[in-house]
Amino acid sequence: MRFEEQILMELKAEMTARAERRHRTRRRLFTGAAVAGLAAVTAIAVPLLTGSEQPAYAVAENADGTINVQLNEFRDADKLERDLERLKVPADITYLKPGKSCEGNRGKIVGGASPEEWEGSASDKAVRLRPGKGLTIDPRHVGTGQTLVMAFTERNDGAAEAAKPAVQWQLAAYVVEGQVKPCVVVDDPLWDDADRPGRPSPAGS
Length: 205
Prior knowledge:
- The chain is α+β, with helices and mostly antiparallel strands.
- It contains 5 helices and 11 strands; from the N terminus they run αβββαβββααβββαββ.
- It has helices at 3-36, 77-86, 115-118, 122-126, 158-162, and strands at 41-47, 57-61, 67-71, 91-96, 100-102, 108-109, 127-129, 135-137, 146-155, 166-177, 185-187.
């Protein structure tokens, strides 16, 4: 076998392995969604201003009615909820330590938890991530009697360490119809080797 052919075969094998890892990660996340009510999980890195005099977050309303949220520190979740409420977005926000999650299903998720039900639903469209710049909320997808639930989990993988002074977090965001159950913090059953240094994160899937 020529050297070029060997390299081509190795590249094909690597691409196949990566595709399989993406498939397993997607299946794992949506399986967890059905069990734990965490229907959308994505990782993102944002500036961390620990020890500074900057506010914990910044909120800005755009001309089209959407809302930008930039997180600087994991604190003042209650105040952020009140600020979003003033902008007509009822929200339930939780900050979690690495390896933790909220126990069980916290309410009736608008759009369901399967990939087929989720895609294109209000829960799918309510939040968009802006890499390195936080997230954008679209109030049009949070209706009367509904609440936008967002659980931010701090990540402690190798990328976060190398990127200091930045922090990585993983977001579960979805819309709940009716009452939202309180977050009971438990060990995250989905927190496995994919969240450890040197392994691909869900954001890269």
